[in-house]
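Re: the 325-residue chain
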Amino acid sequence: MTNISFNMQGHNMTVVEADGSNVEPFVVKNLFIYSGETYSVLIKADQAPTRNYWIVSKVVARNSTTPNGLAIFNYHPNNPTTSPPTVPPVGPAWNDVEPRLAQCEATKARQGYITPPPHKSDRVIVLLNTQNKINGYIRWSVNNVSFNLPNTPYLIAVKEKLHHVFNQSPPPNGYDHRHYDIFNPPTNPNATTSTSIYKLQFDSTVDIVIQNANALSANDSETHPWHLHGHDFWVMGYGKGKFDIHKDPKKYNLVDPILKNTVSVQPYGWTALRFRANNPGVWYFHCHIEYHLFLGMGVVFEEGVEKLGKLPPSIFGCGDAKVSP
């Protein structure tokens, strides 16, 4: 539901894994973890063994009043319930983007474990994160479209050719990046809703660029962790400000990009990823802050459904699938 900074008082952490991929080790004092991510770190217990130390989990990327999560890092034979003699570390400011971006850029694939990405993509989709209103209610949108799930599951609808159960028009492949001002509230705050999905050519290479923009309130751009079902993707690059579709791809990391399934997009910034559409099915790609997802911040990719075998009758239970054979 949120993004956190994790700190072990007096100890450095060596990051060695992220989302199941080996990381070229790097050292941090604060580890930023976004909703949906996983990390493994190594810690050397080399501090004074005569005391215990605080472990602190702190909300970042949101000016939250939630109290910090606290635990005790116990050095044997000290009593594990004895509080450390010092106050818990304060950690980074909730709105300090620089150390968060630095960690993102430091997360590279471990030498000897690199799976190189394709050097070119077959398709580029740019997704603009915006906060909008529909019928007076606040919603989150992608390219000014707030996503709605249909009553009939997509996998059944596509496989059984139930074309009437969701919008067959393709969703926007991008936005008006030349004229849209990402640093100010949208001039037109109203969005539309849709159930349409992106249909990807099977086994093609797809680039996704996620662009963050100002929300409805001035000087407000949130951090969004995006998670892709059914795939890992290469994190090709991060940037501040508006993504330049002509210049920024030339800076992509083609040497040692990490493979992940969740990636953060920082305020007023962009994140680029690349994946192979080689897993037959229908897959969600969405902000992993759950209420952002429920308010419309997500898209769906369909690839190679025709390659799937006959669907089991036991899954035909929702929407128009109830009457499908």
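The longest helix spans residues 97-106.
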